[in-house]
Amino acid sequence: MNFDQLFELAWEVRQNAYAPYSNFRVGAALLTKDGKVFTGCNVENLSFGLTICAERAAVTAAIAAGYAEFVSIAIVSESVSPVSPCGACRQVLSEFVPANEDMEVRSANPAGDIFESTLNALLPRARAGILGT
Ligand code: THU
Questions:
Q1: Which of 48, 51, 109 is the best mutation target for the ligand 1 pocket, counting ligand atoms within 8 Å of the beta carbon and taking the most?
Q2: Which of 18, 30, 48, 118 is most buried, most CB within 10 Å of its CB?
Q3: Is 125 left (phi over 0), alpha (psi -120 to 50) or beta?
Q4: What confidence tens digit (pLDDT) does each residue in 98-122 have?
Q5: 25 CB less than 6 Å from ligand 1?
């Protein structure tokens, strides 16, 4: 499973995004350490703060299926520049990075621009010092 395939799945699930308030539809495809893929789209709410981002929706799908170690995530949106995950999603994703590893994070837009980073770069020291670790 490579990023081209992950992006394809992310575009597919993005079609199911529920985004009537922002009209900004996002899709995400999350690759587990075991090579399984779980997808998610954003789910908005009339009470705006309850919105769930595509990335966190993918995380909950994976956890519900019994997978809790993720190595890559692909995110897509129709934006001028590719999105980068919000702070809440960075923190939630950091919970599920395999020990001593990092997570590849890439996002794309329809123009084919790619933003490429890692979770450690996007959220350094996410777990350091908390609960004695
Ligand atoms: N959104 C995501 O789902 N993921 C991102 O990385 C950026 C933002 C959603 C949340 C909200 O439904 C809409 O995009 C506008 O912020």
A1: 51
A2: 30
A3: left
A4: 999 999 999 999 999 999 999 999 9
A5: no
